[in-house]
């Protein structure tokens, strides 16, 4: 098979060597059995999002650099690095899944850069040429959303929780700046935030052809935009960042809300679960027990600090410290979680 590509570059700066700030980007939607078939579909002008690039061209489809594991029949999961986003991982720090049905394919989350999204697309095409009908975005965080445009170009409908469009619109500028700085301009080339075309207010389903995905929107918990996917074909729950494993949890919503939502989530009759980080697949509901414990300790320690009259600066250094040995990247996330918890609970 042949795909369309384009060289994209950072606008040249004085003294820069040719090619040192460029990368080859994939342009989905032009796949064909021959170069001529691919070339016949190429646009006359390069895509509008290009910063600085050449004319699109066609070449043989390469293999993906990402490893996906078939954790259940037709359900594939890529484990993102348990690390901070940087130039080496290009924002590939969260789990990504796709489900192959009889008529189409749904992708769940898209990675932290367009570059990651392109590699997900290639991994899918190694396994199926069925249409990529849907991209489900489990929440607003940049490591889950910046690859989305690749799938829109491939023809997928982007689906998210009802609060997601506003949340992304409010944060697009800051996410572009902060995440682009973390992973570097070259790795971030071509990455943009795109809004979902379809939103879920409560429960909906996607029929992929003999394979139904049950979507459920949740009240504010990890964030105000959380959405889960239950693959009814394999009874596997894809929880997004409502579930962390190994990677320290990140609280960006409501501690009380997350504890409540997690309790409800654990009552879902699934056999196994794919977390947003870690795993890649865990028994259910046992797989949620470490997170439930951590959130309980975070709650209890925060209340104790408030009761003792500790100021936030002192409380953030002690809250949930007993959990440090259970989580990777703990020191990067726990103080932030303590700050969010303290701010929420002090006004009860």
Automatic annotation (TrEMBL):
GO terms for molecular function: hydrolase activity. Residues 93-277 form the Metallo-beta-lactamase domain. It holds the Pfam family Lactamase_B. One of its GO terms (biological process) is antibiotic catabolic process. Keywords: Hydrolase. It comes from the Bacteria. Gene3D superfamilies: Ribonuclease Z/Hydroxyacylglutathione hydrolase-like. Belongs to the metallo-beta-lactamase superfamily. Class-B beta-lactamase family. This is MBL fold metallo-hydrolase.
């Amino acid at each position: 098979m042949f795909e369309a590509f384009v060289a994209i570059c950072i606008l040249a700066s004085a003294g820069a060597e040719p090619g040192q700030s460029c990368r080859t980007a994939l342009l989905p939607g032009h796949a064909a059995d021959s170069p001529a078939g691919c070339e016949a579909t190429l646009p006359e002008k390069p895509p509008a999002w290009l910063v600085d690039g050449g004319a699109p061209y066609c070449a043989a489809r390469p293999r993906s650099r990402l490893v996906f594991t078939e954790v259940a029949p037709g359900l594939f999961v890529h484990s993102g690095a348990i690390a901070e986003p940087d130039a080496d991982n290009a924002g590939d720090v969260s789990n990504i899944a796709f489900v192959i049905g009889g008529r189409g394919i749904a992708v769940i989350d898209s990675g932290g850069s367009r570059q990651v999204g392109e590699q997900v697309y290639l991994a899918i095409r190694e396994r199926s040429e069925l249409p990529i009908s849907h991209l489900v975005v489990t929440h607003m965080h940049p490591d889950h959303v910046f690859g989305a445009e690749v799938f829109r170009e491939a023809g997928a409908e982007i689906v998210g929780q009802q609060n997601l469009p506003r949340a992304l619109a409010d944060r697009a500028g800051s996410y572009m700046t902060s995440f682009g700085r973390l992973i570097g301009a070259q790795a971030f080339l071509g990455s943009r935030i795109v809004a979902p075309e379809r939103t879920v207010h409560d429960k909906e389903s996607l029929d992929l052809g003999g394979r139904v995905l049950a979507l459920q929107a949740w009240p504010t918990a990890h964030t105000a935009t959380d959405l889960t996917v239950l693959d009814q074909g394999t009874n596997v729950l894809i929880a997004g960042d409502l579930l962390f494993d190994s990677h320290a949890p990140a609280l960006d919503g409501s501690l009380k809300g997350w504890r409540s939502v997690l309790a409800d989530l654990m009552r879902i009759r699934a056999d196994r679960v794919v977390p947003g980080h870690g795993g890649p697949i865990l028994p259910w509901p046992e797989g949620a027990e470490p997170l439930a414990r951590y959130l309980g300790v975070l709650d209890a320690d925060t209340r104790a600090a408030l009761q003792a009259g500790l100021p936030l600066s002192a409380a953030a250094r002690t809250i949930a410290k007993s959990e440090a040995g259970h989580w990777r990247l703990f020191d990067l996330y726990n103080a932030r979680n303590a700050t969010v918890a303290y701010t929420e609970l002090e006004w009860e």
